[in-house]
């Protein structure tokens, strides 16, 4: 196919050609970035939590009046929950992954540091790791003689009484890697609110209740501290039992102490679903806009293509009369579209890169991976070719006899 | 002349229905998407208290120790109990209120309603006059009630409807966490957006249902909600929150003139210096006194996703416009013959141009109408989203007008180039080729 005649034709339709190029470039730039953001959100939604989500239930209760003896009541609750058929494990905890409410603290490797090394979330509750089903990859679990009551810890911290504070801690693998890169964290010491504490175990993953920074999402530690605030986690034998176990657990808790209100009752699957609602909505919206953009662009190509074909009917007739085949005419319009699309895509790539740079500075997005460029180009070439097919076939159908007629 | 042009425009548009439909749909899609996102942005970045917000300020001091000190880092977002009380009692502003959020268990007297938890605000008395909170029945409490830690409560209209069937409930007793409070006021509907006075407890959430004097909330051991930020030995112990080195309260002041703002800033500096001399403050003296809207900006109250969506929608509108320019150009040039005849018959370039612009405006109007329908649909979708601002997404008259201005303005802009191009046609050439 000879490209030169196409170029000279396009030179006579500068504005229209320019508009097609701009439209393709803008579409290419926006779609590349939008798809990138969609993928980011999908990745986020598939984030590993490190806990046995499908088999976990979460219940949070609050007392109506001022209650005494919270610890004894908690033990009674736990004992009753354990008796429910289908319950494998239970724990009274202070926070849960994706639960949004969290307690966090700065961690220092050295007391003299001015700024903390990192900020981690503090999980606590006896038997928490086992109830969550978080996988221990090194060291050991926290032992029951290491556990202290939450109230005692608060009192001891205020009095700077080191002996009554927790001494052992379990941390996540990613936190260990960040603190002591390439080394085993076992036996290492760090400072939590200026009190020393020693790592005795490492879990593979345990995501935070709320995530501000995706890089710090697994900076979690588990303290040997007993909690009795009425927040329980139950692990069931199988996901099919979840609903039945939750209902039974609530009935049991109500029976033990009716003077309280259920604040939360859900499976961890629901917790995850709620946590990523905004990401899901954003991804949905972006998908909608991308589809609309591609539709508008292809309709624009169809419209302009039809116009060009109508305008050049006579010339097409002349070419056909001079011996050009239908295929030649079809190829002409396809090549023309391919040329315009190519220029548009090239411009669009530069623009996509620019938009990505802007997003990186204003929305803390990572750099656009190179793979998006060829894939985006392929997509727009395909759409361009599909859109121009209709007008091009109409052009090919112009009979040679048109050449002999005056308009 | 205008009516004639309008008639010509309608004829021309009806002649090629597919092309016209394509243009109108493209404009409508672009306008619909832009107006949807723009309305959300407009609602979210609005002024929570129009006419009042200009005189509301959020004082900030820094009581933290030197650990982690970095001069470039921002001041604490809240105040400690001690600083809050000191600033409150100094009464240097026209009005001032110290507050925090919480949740209370409500025990209805009627046996038919199960006990439930409600969001609550523990505050001092100036909250109501300072934020111009409207009352349906009764009134707020006095500074003397703050001092005596009176067991009084103000509830919202919706809670009053639920508990007292909408009747005037002032003087009635409301039991919360086993403590009896006397209802002294019922608010009329009030929902400032954003929830500016405490951005940690839901940025676009409803106002709390229960308002209790700050002192009384401490006496009754009502639970605190929201952010607590501690340093040193602070562990966020609820029972001793008055003395813990933690910030957990919001302090707002009303300052009615620029002089008073400058004087208050001066006062905050003096206060910090004094506290430093006393050994309570350790860091170099730095104070903040942002206005309400400035405080919203600092906290990035408008979600980043919403801004991103707005940019995206405008990018989309741009593509739709480029598309329309191309199609209009095609359409106008196709009528070169007709335009040539008009020119030859004596129509000036200016008149032909005007005729084509009227045609663009008609497309713009149709696109605007379509866009409006799509925006209603889009906002309906936004309202079904889970975010706390979802229920606020409604088109107001300003945005309604803006839709048409944007649609017609954008289409006229898009029509400029094709119309100009079409005017350049030499009439003789066109007539010859006929």
From TrEMBL, chain A:
MacB-like periplasmic core domain sequence ranges = 54-247
Location(s), subcellular: Cell membrane
GO molecular function annotations of the record: transmembrane transporter activity
Q: Which GO terms describe its cellular component?
A: plasma membrane
Membrane-related topology note: Multi-pass membrane protein
Q: Does the keyword Transmembrane apply?
A: yes
Spans through the membrane:
15-38, 282-310, 338-359, 371-393
Domain (ABC3 transporter permease C-terminal): give its ranges: 291-399
* Presence of the UniProt keyword RNA-binding in the record: no
Signal peptide per UniProt = none
Q: Which residues form a coiled coil?
A: none
UniProt KW keywords: Cell membrane, Membrane, Transmembrane, Transmembrane helix
Q: Which family, according to UniProt?
A: Belongs to the ABC-4 integral membrane protein family.
The entry's protein name is ABC transporter permease
Tell me which species this is from. Answer: Dyella solisilvae
Automatic annotation (TrEMBL), chain B:
Which segments constitute the ABC3 transporter permease C-terminal domain? 313-426
Q: Name one GO cellular component term.
A: plasma membrane
Q: How does it sit in the membrane?
A: Multi-pass membrane protein
Keyword match Cell membrane: yes
Q: Which Pfam families match?
A: FtsX, MacB_PCD
Q: What is its main location?
A: membrane
Residues that span the membrane, as ranges: 311-333, 353-380, 400-420
Where, subcellularly, is it found?
Answer: Cell membrane
Keyword Cell membrane in annotation: yes
GO MF terms held by the record: transmembrane transporter activity
Domain named MacB-like periplasmic core is located at: 20-266
Q: Which domain of life is it from?
A: Bacteria
**Keywords per UniProt:** Cell membrane, Membrane, Transmembrane, Transmembrane helix
The record's annotation in PANTHER family points to: ABC-TYPE MACROLIDE FAMILY EXPORT SYSTEM PERMEASE COMPONENT 2 (PTHR30572:SF18), MEMBRANE COMPONENT OF TRANSPORTER-RELATED (PTHR30572)
Q: What's this protein's name? A: ABC transporter permease
Organism the protein comes from: Dyella solisilvae
